[in-house]
Amino acid sequence: MNLVSEIFIGSLTGKTEEEQREFLKNFREENRKDKLKISIMPNLVTKEFIKMLKQFGVTSVELEIQSTNGYILKKCGYSYTIEDIKKASKLIKWNRLKVSFQVGVGLPDSTKIDELNTAKDLSKLKPHLIRIYPMVVVKNTQLEEEFNKGYFEPLTLNQAIERCKELVYAFNRKKIKQINIIKQNDLNKSEEKEIIARSIS
Fold first, then answer.
1. Tell me, what CATH number does 146's domain have?
2. For residue range 101-137, what is the model confidence (pLDDT) as tens digits?
3. How far is CA 28 from CA 2, 36, 62, 144, in A?
4. In a domain, 170, yes or no
5. What is the 3-state secondary structure (H, E, C) of the chain?
């Protein structure tokens, strides 16, 4: 029996439409029978984008969401809002694709309360899956500049564990059971090379 599996093929954020099409085409040719899952920032989700995903057999979309707090998003240089998250989620579900969220922990100026409020906001949108990740410092980002200047430090290991646990409990209380925590071992070699600093190993 040939079982059809769902594979996460990566992020489309930062790619042009042409690059996105080529990326999807290559994975579809290599995985003709598998269901494909991609990730993208919520403000980049449009009707045309969803149409392209369906053309290449993508069945699940993960929205890259660091926070729903406008101040924190602006401080980190992200250009989307809670309204973008709501619109993207609605559009994905309307097109009968699964929607999941990738949620950040330990962003600059983010407190436990901010993260619990993010969990509260996102729970209302009833995602299929939540992936929680402690914030890491990546090369060539605004966060790297903050880190190099001494303005930002990743959470300690114990802090990250406790904050992740709080979010898991918060999502569970809202009946969201499929929750993963992204660890260092989950990163591929190319992602690993881009990391400057982290809290969880």
1. 3.80.30.10
2. 999 999 989 999 999 999 999 999 999 999 998 877 7
3. 17, 8, 18, 34
4. yes
5. CCCCCEEEEEECCCCCHHHHHHHHHHHHHHCCCCEEEEEECHHHCCHHHHHHHHHCCEEEEEEEECCCCHHHHHHHCCCCCHHHHHHHHHHHHHCCCEEEEEEEECCCCCCHHHHHHHHHHHHCCCCCEEEEEECCEECCCHHHHHHHCCCCCCCCHHHHHHHHHHHHHHHHHCCCCCEEECCHHHCCHHHHHCEEECCCC
Q: pLDDT for 51-91, tens place per residue?
A: 999 999 999 999 999 999 999 998 888 899 999 999 999 99
Within-domain flag for 97: yes
Q: Is 51 left (phi over 0), alpha (psi -120 to 50) or beta?
A: alpha
DSSP single-letter state for residue 200: -
pTM of the model: 0.86
Domain that holds residue 66: 6-197
The number of domains in the chain is 1
Residue 19 falls inside a structural domain:
yes
Q: How far apart are CA 135 and CA 65, in angstroms?
A: 12
Phi, psi of 45 (to 5 degrees): -85, 120
Domain assignment of residue 1, yes or no: no
